[in-house]
Specification:
Helices cover 74% and strands 0% of the residues. It has six helices and no strands. Helix 4 (76-83) packs antiparallel against helix 6 (99-114).
């Protein structure tokens, strides 16, 4: 049973790796992944939804080795999601924030995680 399970798991992993290769071979997906990196490094205002989407794209790029030659912490996508939530930002600031203040603080936090200030 263990051998059968191991075989099935290896097949699932191989299938996922092949699907990822096909996905990132698409120019539209590559563009989305690279644009996400650029926005995360430079944005001055980020909503929570946008940050989550960009972090997800970053995670895909990191997992698929798209960002060869770029200095990107492999844990950055998880850090972005964990540290850029509205409640986390409010606690970090120590005061109630307007939506614009929160989005600006989120972008600053993201830039700091990405190593670009």
């Amino acid at each position: 049973a263990i051998d059968n399970l191991s075989t099935v798991v290896r097949q699932i992993i191989a299938t996922e790796e092949e699907e990822r290769k096909q996905l990132i071979a698409q120019p539209e997906i590559q563009d989305k992944i690279w644009r996400s990196l650029g926005i995360l490094r430079t944005a001055r205002m980020l909503s929570g939804d946008e940050t989550f989407e960009l972090a997800s794209n970053l995670r895909l790029g990191v997992a698929c080795g798209v960002y060869k030659g770029e200095k990107i912490d492999p844990g950055a996508p998880s850090k972005l999601i964990a540290l850029s939530g509205s409640a986390t930002l409010t606690v970090k600031s120590g005061k109630k924030l307007s939506a614009a203040e929160r989005d600006a603080l989120r972008a600053e936090t993201v830039r700091n995680i990405m190593g670009d200030h």
